[in-house]
Design a protein that fits this description.
- By secondary structure, the chain is α+β, with helices and mostly antiparallel strands.
- It has 2 domains: about 100 residues; about 100 residues, 2-Layer Sandwich (hypothetical protein PF0899 fold), CATH 3.30.2320.
- Helix content is about 70%, strand content about 10%.
- Helix 3 links the parallel strand 1 and strand 2.
- The protein is rod-shaped, with a radius of gyration of 47 Å.
- About 10% of the residues are buried.
Length: about 220
């Protein structure tokens, strides 16, 4: 049987070997843990960076979409405002022209409109369509004025025929060549229609473009 001293040595050796083994295991565990932790940190950084980039990209995309949406709404609002202004201007023009027939200058105005129409047509004989209320004026005053004006421009007029428009008109005239398909519409309604596009362009250039340049200048 082994003596106590031998037993103690054996126990100490076992303990020493055990401690070494435990230390070795702990060291390996620590290294493994450190490696795992480092990998985890790197992975977290990589994933976090990816998520952050995606969030930034999505945020930037969202901002661009929002700005695009806002710009579209602003354009729509401007177009709506422009059309409202054009409509109001045309309403004022219509009201003013509706009273033109009662003015003493109306025969001269009507003659000028007919001359303008004739100047845009070929030939020397014309049919002049006016509102029923203006038929008497044509033979009484207007045709004479037209002939005098065209004579000054060295253009002889062989014939002017007064005809009634199918629909009533605020004023002005529609002029054509007998048997021809070309008609020069110089009624007030036609001029208002043509004026609408000009008014729209003027409002856009003079109001909204100035507003836009001021806005960009103050940004």
């Amino acid at each position: 049987m082994a003596d106590n001293e031998s037993v103690d040595r054996i126990v100490d050796q076992i303990l020493e070997d055990g401690e070494k083994e435990v230390s070795s295991i702990l060291e390996k565990a620590e290294r493994t843990a450190s490696e795992i932790l480092e990998k985890a940190r790197n992975m977290a950084d990589e994933i976090g960076g990816k998520i952050l980039r995606e969030a930034e990209e999505k945020g930037d995309l969202a901002r661009r979409r929002l700005l695009s949406s806002v710009n579209i709404e602003v354009k729509r609002a401007k177009l709506k405002a422009r059309e409202e202004i054009v409509s109001k201007i045309n309403e004022e023009v219509e009201r003013g022209l509706a009273d033109a027939r009662s003015e003493t200058e109306y025969p001269e105005l009507l003659a000028d409109l007919i001359v303008e129409a004739i100047s845009g047509l070929e030939g020397d004989t014309f049919q002049v369509y006016v509102d029923r209320r203006d038929i008497g004026l044509l033979d009484e005053k207007v045709f004479r004025m037209v002939r005098e004006t065209m004579a000054v421009e060295s253009r002889d007029i062989s014939g002017l025929e007064a005809l009634v428009l199918e629909k009533s008109s605020l004023g002005g005239a529609r002029v054509g060549v007998p048997g021809g398909k070309v008609i020069f519409d110089n009624t007030f309604e036609a001029r208002i229609y043509r004026l609408r596009d000009r008014t729209r362009n003027i409002i856009f250039e003079e109001v909204f473009e100035i507003e836009g340049s001021e806005g960009s200048g103050s940004a």
